[in-house]
Amino acid sequence: MKVSIKDLQVAMEVKNAGVEFQINDNAEKQLGDLFVTKANLIWCKGKTQKDNGVKIRWEDFIAWAEARGAAPAAKKAVAKKAAK
């Protein structure tokens, strides 16, 4: 993946306008843009505009990320019990 910042409008903290990341595959085809704002993340597939993107609240993203991180550990614990 190639990830680049398209427009950096950030001082020390992310403002309401946020930061826009352009995501391209290794063949330089644009996959979409990711906006990181104070309130949420916004995924815009392809050349979709920010207003039409998929909004993900920070709380939802954190819960999703933590659940994914916990899943492999839970599987290992079950596998150890089964092996005994």
Q: Any idea what the radius of gyration is? A: 17 Å
The fraction of residues assigned to DSSP E strands is 35-45%
Structural class: alpha+beta
* Largest sheet: spatial strand order: 1-2-3-4-5
Globally, the shape reads globular
Observed structural traits:
84 residues, single chain, alpha+beta
Summarize the structure.
The chain is an alpha+beta fold and 84 residues long.
Can you offer a commentary on this structure?
The chain is of the alpha+beta class and 84 residues long. The chain has one domain (2-83). The protein is built from 1 helix and 5 strands. Strands 1-2-3-4-5 form a 5-stranded antiparallel β-sheet. Strand 4 and strand 5 (54-57) form a beta hairpin. The longest helix has 26 residues, at 58-83. The mean pLDDT is 81.
Helices and strands in order, then pairings?
Elements: E1 2-8, E2 19-24, E3 30-36, E4 40-45, E5 54-57, H1 58-83
Antiparallel strand pairs: 1-2, 2-3, 3-4, 4-5
